[in-house]
Amino acid sequence: MKYDLIIPSHPKDYVKLQFCLNSCLEHLNPSPENIYVITPDGLGGSIATGIKDEDAVQINKATIKYRRSNWIYQQLVKLFQDFTENDLYLCVDSDLIFNRPIDIFKDGKPNFFVSDRDQHHEPYFNFMELYFGLSRQVDHTFINDFMVFDKNICAEMIPNKDHLVLAINALMSDDCLLSEFETYGNYITKNHPNLYGSQPTKTKMYGRYSSEPWSGEEIKQIVDENRAEDVDLFTIHSWT
Questions:
Q1: What DSSP character marks residue 130?
Q2: Helices 180-191 and 69-80 meet at what angle, rounded to 10?
Q3: Torsion angles phi and psi, residue 157, rounded to 5
Q4: Which CATH number fits domain 4-239: 3.40.1000, 1.10.101, 3.10.450, 3.90.550?
Q5: Which of 47, 66, 138, 142 has the smallest count of CB within 10 Å of its CB?
């Protein structure tokens, strides 16, 4: 099976981008056929195609009225992008670094990667219920900073992206939020229960506020310290 890799990145995470990309090249099995990096500046290189944020999806960010419009727009890119050559695409947040081999497929199916972190954020399920008529299908979270999406399923789940943006503007609040990971995972579980496999992952999280930026030396030290640790991946967050 073939798939492409998408890495969205914000300027505050640019220092992490090469570490993320290197870990993808080292640990993703099989390797992606094509790699795309989405940034405000269109950063690219010899192994990754650079795409500017505004070219990633045919949605005007200015039409998103929720105060965290960048966060919502990044989710919409994951759900509606059509620039990948393959229908299957793996989205990996640029502050994630893989530490061990990750099998994208199992028995001819893409995997959902289930985090060992216990997370239940009710606002995500409130929006899921209101807009999609979809209740929570499993007792674990689908949020794990990386996920394999299928263009065909995204189009089936949300046939009209403009209608979704209108609903986001009408419904979203701190108590009612879109989560692309929870929505897609629960939709698949309910409507296509045999389409994906499942793989547990062991994770570790680092984080601090973006007012104290991470340096490349600090990130390299974290990478080196974790090589022998019993973790599949770790995240290095810069909170705003």
A1: I
A2: 30
A3: -70, -40
A4: 3.90.550
A5: 47
Full DSSP string of 161-175: HHHHHHHHHHH-BTT
Which value, in Å, is the radius of gyration of the alpha carbons in the chain? 17
Q: CA dist 82 to 6, 90, 125, Å? A: 11, 13, 26
Domain boundaries, the chain: 4-239
Q: Would you say the pTM of this structure is higher than 0.70?
A: yes
CA geometry: angle 219, 19, 53, nearest 5 deg: 115
* Cβ atoms of 195 and 107 closer than 8 Å: no
Q: What is the pLDDT along the chain (240 residues), one digit of tens a residue?
A: 999 999 999 999 999 999 999 999 999 999 999 999 999 999 988 899 999 999 999 999 999 999 999 999 999 999 999 999 999 999 999 999 999 999 999 999 999 999 998 888 999 999 999 999 999 999 999 999 999 999 999 999 999 999 999 999 999 999 999 999 999 999 999 999 999 999 999 999 999 999 999 999 999 999 999 999 999 999 999 998
